[in-house]
Design goal:
two-stranded antiparallel sheet; about 35% helix; about 15% strand; RhgT-like; hydrolase; Rhamnogalacturonan acetylesterase; SGNH_hydro_sf; SGNH_hydro
Length: about 270
Protein backbone atom coordinates (compact mmCIF):
# COMPACT_ATOMS: atom_id res chain seq x y z
CA UNK A 1 0.00 0.00 0.00
CA UNK A 2 1.40 3.42 -0.96
CA UNK A 3 2.17 6.07 1.64
CA UNK A 4 -0.73 8.30 0.55
CA UNK A 5 -3.17 5.40 0.54
CA UNK A 6 -2.01 4.43 4.03
CA UNK A 7 -2.59 7.98 5.28
CA UNK A 8 -6.05 8.03 3.71
CA UNK A 9 -6.90 4.65 5.23
CA UNK A 10 -5.82 5.85 8.69
CA UNK A 11 -7.86 9.03 8.32
CA UNK A 12 -10.98 7.00 7.49
CA UNK A 13 -10.37 4.77 10.52
CA UNK A 14 -9.94 7.86 12.67
CA UNK A 15 -13.18 9.37 11.46
CA UNK A 16 -15.02 6.12 12.15
CA UNK A 17 -13.51 5.89 15.62
CA UNK A 18 -14.57 9.43 16.55
CA UNK A 19 -17.96 9.37 14.84
CA UNK A 20 -20.55 11.11 16.96
CA UNK A 21 -23.28 8.88 18.41
CA UNK A 22 -26.69 9.21 16.75
CA UNK A 23 -29.00 11.86 18.20
CA UNK A 24 -31.55 10.34 20.55
CA UNK A 25 -35.08 10.81 19.26
CA UNK A 26 -38.19 10.79 21.42
CA UNK A 27 -41.39 9.43 19.90
CA UNK A 28 -44.74 11.05 20.63
CA UNK A 29 -47.50 8.54 19.90
CA UNK A 30 -50.96 9.93 19.15
CA UNK A 31 -53.97 7.69 19.81
CA UNK A 32 -57.51 8.79 19.24
CA UNK A 33 -60.14 9.40 16.59
CA UNK A 34 -60.71 11.26 13.32
CA UNK A 35 -60.20 14.69 14.85
CA UNK A 36 -56.48 13.83 15.21
CA UNK A 37 -55.91 11.26 12.47
CA UNK A 38 -53.89 11.38 9.26
CA UNK A 39 -56.17 11.88 6.26
CA UNK A 40 -55.94 10.43 2.77
CA UNK A 41 -55.68 12.77 -0.26
CA UNK A 42 -59.25 11.93 -1.31
CA UNK A 43 -60.65 13.61 1.84
CA UNK A 44 -58.52 16.78 1.64
CA UNK A 45 -58.93 19.52 2.91
CA UNK A 46 -60.13 17.57 5.96
CA UNK A 47 -57.19 17.63 8.36
CA UNK A 48 -56.66 16.01 11.77
CA UNK A 49 -54.81 18.16 14.30
CA UNK A 50 -52.16 15.47 14.57
CA UNK A 51 -51.06 16.21 11.00
CA UNK A 52 -49.52 19.68 11.57
CA UNK A 53 -48.26 18.77 15.06
CA UNK A 54 -44.78 17.52 13.94
CA UNK A 55 -43.96 20.93 12.45
CA UNK A 56 -43.95 22.43 15.95
CA UNK A 57 -41.05 20.25 17.13
CA UNK A 58 -37.35 20.06 16.34
CA UNK A 59 -35.61 17.07 14.77
CA UNK A 60 -35.23 15.23 18.08
CA UNK A 61 -38.99 14.54 18.23
CA UNK A 62 -40.82 12.01 16.06
CA UNK A 63 -44.62 12.16 16.00
CA UNK A 64 -46.24 8.78 15.29
CA UNK A 65 -49.91 9.37 14.53
CA UNK A 66 -51.89 6.17 15.22
CA UNK A 67 -55.27 7.86 15.60
CA UNK A 68 -57.95 6.40 13.37
CA UNK A 69 -61.30 7.62 12.05
CA UNK A 70 -64.34 6.31 13.88
CA UNK A 71 -62.51 4.71 16.79
CA UNK A 72 -63.50 4.80 20.42
CA UNK A 73 -61.34 3.58 23.28
CA UNK A 74 -63.13 0.24 23.08
CA UNK A 75 -62.68 -0.34 19.35
CA UNK A 76 -59.10 0.96 19.40
CA UNK A 77 -58.31 -1.80 21.88
CA UNK A 78 -60.51 -4.46 20.26
CA UNK A 79 -58.82 -3.96 16.87
CA UNK A 80 -55.38 -4.48 18.45
CA UNK A 81 -54.25 -0.95 17.62
CA UNK A 82 -52.89 -0.35 21.12
CA UNK A 83 -50.72 -3.42 21.76
CA UNK A 84 -48.18 -2.73 18.98
CA UNK A 85 -47.69 0.76 20.42
CA UNK A 86 -47.06 -0.66 23.89
CA UNK A 87 -44.51 -3.06 22.46
CA UNK A 88 -42.73 -0.23 20.62
CA UNK A 89 -42.64 2.23 23.52
CA UNK A 90 -39.22 3.21 24.80
CA UNK A 91 -38.41 4.94 28.10
CA UNK A 92 -38.98 8.66 27.73
CA UNK A 93 -41.51 8.40 24.90
CA UNK A 94 -44.93 10.06 25.17
CA UNK A 95 -48.47 8.91 24.46
CA UNK A 96 -51.08 11.61 23.78
CA UNK A 97 -54.53 10.13 24.45
CA UNK A 98 -57.66 11.86 23.10
CA UNK A 99 -60.90 9.95 22.67
CA UNK A 100 -64.55 10.67 23.46
CA UNK A 101 -66.19 11.60 20.15
CA UNK A 102 -67.05 8.02 19.29
CA UNK A 103 -67.22 6.65 22.83
CA UNK A 104 -70.20 8.91 23.49
CA UNK A 105 -72.02 8.04 20.24
CA UNK A 106 -74.93 6.01 21.62
CA UNK A 107 -76.52 5.99 18.17
CA UNK A 108 -73.53 3.94 16.91
CA UNK A 109 -73.54 0.71 18.96
CA UNK A 110 -70.48 -0.56 17.09
CA UNK A 111 -68.32 2.13 18.77
CA UNK A 112 -70.26 3.38 21.80
CA UNK A 113 -68.47 2.98 25.14
CA UNK A 114 -70.30 3.75 28.41
CA UNK A 115 -68.51 6.27 30.65
CA UNK A 116 -67.49 3.59 33.17
CA UNK A 117 -65.83 1.50 30.46
CA UNK A 118 -64.28 4.62 28.93
CA UNK A 119 -62.69 5.31 32.29
CA UNK A 120 -61.30 1.75 32.54
CA UNK A 121 -59.83 2.04 29.06
CA UNK A 122 -58.12 5.34 29.86
CA UNK A 123 -56.67 3.76 33.00
CA UNK A 124 -55.33 0.90 30.89
CA UNK A 125 -53.62 3.29 28.46
CA UNK A 126 -52.07 5.20 31.35
CA UNK A 127 -50.89 2.16 33.30
CA UNK A 128 -49.37 0.37 30.33
CA UNK A 129 -47.64 3.52 29.11
CA UNK A 130 -46.06 4.05 32.53
CA UNK A 131 -45.06 0.40 32.74
CA UNK A 132 -42.79 1.05 29.77
CA UNK A 133 -41.35 4.14 31.52
CA UNK A 134 -43.05 6.40 28.99
CA UNK A 135 -45.26 9.41 29.72
CA UNK A 136 -49.03 9.51 29.19
CA UNK A 137 -50.79 12.82 28.48
CA UNK A 138 -54.59 12.87 28.63
CA UNK A 139 -56.49 15.25 26.35
CA UNK A 140 -60.17 16.05 26.64
CA UNK A 141 -62.12 15.59 23.37
CA UNK A 142 -61.89 18.60 21.07
CA UNK A 143 -65.17 20.47 20.64
CA UNK A 144 -67.70 20.20 17.87
CA UNK A 145 -68.98 23.44 16.40
CA UNK A 146 -72.44 24.00 17.86
CA UNK A 147 -73.92 27.45 18.42
CA UNK A 148 -77.14 28.38 20.19
CA UNK A 149 -78.13 32.05 20.26
CA UNK A 150 -74.61 33.04 19.37
CA UNK A 151 -72.91 30.95 22.06
CA UNK A 152 -70.75 27.90 21.40
CA UNK A 153 -72.11 24.92 23.34
CA UNK A 154 -70.29 22.32 25.38
CA UNK A 155 -70.54 19.08 23.41
CA UNK A 156 -68.60 16.50 25.49
CA UNK A 157 -69.76 17.09 29.06
CA UNK A 158 -69.61 13.55 30.45
CA UNK A 159 -66.54 12.28 28.63
CA UNK A 160 -64.44 15.37 29.26
CA UNK A 161 -65.31 15.05 32.96
CA UNK A 162 -64.19 11.42 33.04
CA UNK A 163 -60.93 12.29 31.28
CA UNK A 164 -60.22 15.05 33.80
CA UNK A 165 -61.10 12.74 36.70
CA UNK A 166 -58.68 10.05 35.52
CA UNK A 167 -55.94 12.62 34.98
CA UNK A 168 -56.36 13.98 38.51
CA UNK A 169 -56.55 10.57 40.16
CA UNK A 170 -53.53 9.23 38.29
CA UNK A 171 -51.53 12.49 38.40
CA UNK A 172 -51.31 12.57 34.61
CA UNK A 173 -50.86 15.84 32.69
CA UNK A 174 -54.22 16.98 31.32
CA UNK A 175 -54.68 19.16 28.26
CA UNK A 176 -58.18 20.62 28.47
CA UNK A 177 -58.65 20.83 24.72
CA UNK A 178 -62.44 20.71 25.03
CA UNK A 179 -62.67 24.08 26.80
CA UNK A 180 -59.77 25.68 24.94
CA UNK A 181 -61.23 24.76 21.56
CA UNK A 182 -64.70 25.98 22.62
CA UNK A 183 -63.20 29.30 23.62
CA UNK A 184 -61.41 29.55 20.28
CA UNK A 185 -64.56 28.75 18.31
CA UNK A 186 -66.43 31.37 20.33
CA UNK A 187 -63.73 33.96 19.60
CA UNK A 188 -64.05 33.28 15.88
CA UNK A 189 -67.80 33.66 16.12
CA UNK A 190 -70.72 31.74 14.68
CA UNK A 191 -69.97 32.58 11.05
CA UNK A 192 -66.17 32.87 10.96
CA UNK A 193 -65.73 29.65 12.96
CA UNK A 194 -66.84 27.77 9.85
CA UNK A 195 -63.32 28.46 8.56
CA UNK A 196 -61.97 26.10 11.23
CA UNK A 197 -64.12 23.18 10.10
CA UNK A 198 -64.77 21.25 6.92
CA UNK A 199 -67.33 23.70 5.60
CA UNK A 200 -67.41 23.80 1.80
CA UNK A 201 -69.89 25.18 -0.71
CA UNK A 202 -70.69 23.12 -3.83
CA UNK A 203 -67.80 23.44 -6.26
CA UNK A 204 -65.29 24.66 -3.64
CA UNK A 205 -63.20 21.50 -3.87
CA UNK A 206 -63.19 18.54 -6.29
CA UNK A 207 -63.26 16.06 -3.41
CA UNK A 208 -66.68 17.44 -2.38
CA UNK A 209 -68.55 18.42 -5.54
CA UNK A 210 -71.78 18.92 -3.59
CA UNK A 211 -70.08 20.76 -0.74
CA UNK A 212 -69.79 19.72 2.89
CA UNK A 213 -71.28 21.06 6.12
CA UNK A 214 -69.18 19.33 8.77
CA UNK A 215 -68.98 20.70 12.32
CA UNK A 216 -66.74 17.94 13.68
CA UNK A 217 -63.75 17.64 11.34
CA UNK A 218 -61.24 20.39 10.71
CA UNK A 219 -59.95 22.36 7.79
CA UNK A 220 -56.20 22.89 7.47
CA UNK A 221 -56.56 26.13 9.42
CA UNK A 222 -58.64 24.51 12.15
CA UNK A 223 -56.24 21.59 12.58
CA UNK A 224 -53.27 23.93 12.92
CA UNK A 225 -55.12 26.08 15.44
CA UNK A 226 -55.99 23.02 17.54
CA UNK A 227 -52.40 21.78 17.39
CA UNK A 228 -51.27 25.23 18.56
CA UNK A 229 -53.55 24.92 21.58
CA UNK A 230 -51.97 21.59 22.48
CA UNK A 231 -48.46 23.02 22.11
CA UNK A 232 -49.37 26.08 24.19
CA UNK A 233 -50.35 23.76 27.06
CA UNK A 234 -47.06 21.88 26.83
CA UNK A 235 -45.35 25.21 27.46
CA UNK A 236 -47.79 26.40 30.14
CA UNK A 237 -47.50 23.14 32.10
CA UNK A 238 -43.74 22.96 31.50
CA UNK A 239 -43.97 19.47 30.09
CA UNK A 240 -40.40 18.59 29.00
CA UNK A 241 -41.48 18.21 25.37
CA UNK A 242 -41.72 21.99 25.28
CA UNK A 243 -37.91 22.10 25.42
CA UNK A 244 -37.88 20.57 21.93
CA UNK A 245 -40.06 23.03 20.05
CA UNK A 246 -38.78 24.06 16.64
CA UNK A 247 -37.18 27.46 16.14
CA UNK A 248 -37.86 29.59 13.08
CA UNK A 249 -35.20 30.30 10.49
CA UNK A 250 -33.40 33.55 11.36
CA UNK A 251 -34.74 35.11 8.15
CA UNK A 252 -38.28 34.35 9.25
CA UNK A 253 -37.82 35.72 12.77
CA UNK A 254 -37.29 39.30 11.62
CA UNK A 255 -40.04 41.73 12.67
CA UNK A 256 -42.25 42.67 9.71
CA UNK A 257 -41.57 45.89 7.87
CA UNK A 258 -43.85 48.11 5.82
CA UNK A 259 -44.09 47.44 2.13
CA UNK A 260 -43.69 44.16 0.19
CA UNK A 261 -43.05 40.95 2.07
CA UNK A 262 -39.30 40.62 2.52
CA UNK A 263 -39.23 37.52 4.71
CA UNK A 264 -38.26 34.53 2.57
CA UNK A 265 -39.31 31.17 3.97
CA UNK A 266 -36.44 29.24 2.38
CA UNK A 267 -32.95 28.99 3.89
Amino acid sequence: MSYMKSIGFLLVLGLLAFRLPPIHKTTVYLIGDSTIAQKIPQTFPETGWGMPLPTFFDSTIVVANHAKNGRSTRTFLAENRWQPIVEALQPGDYVFIQFGHNDEAENYPDRYTPPADYRKNLLKFVAETRRKEAYPVLITPVTRRKFMQGKQQETHVAYSAVTAEVAKAQKVPLIGLDKMSRDMVQQFGEENSKLLFLQLAPGDHPNYPYGRQDNTHFSELGARKMAQLVVSELKTQRIPLADHLARPLPKNAVPPTKGPDTQPTTP
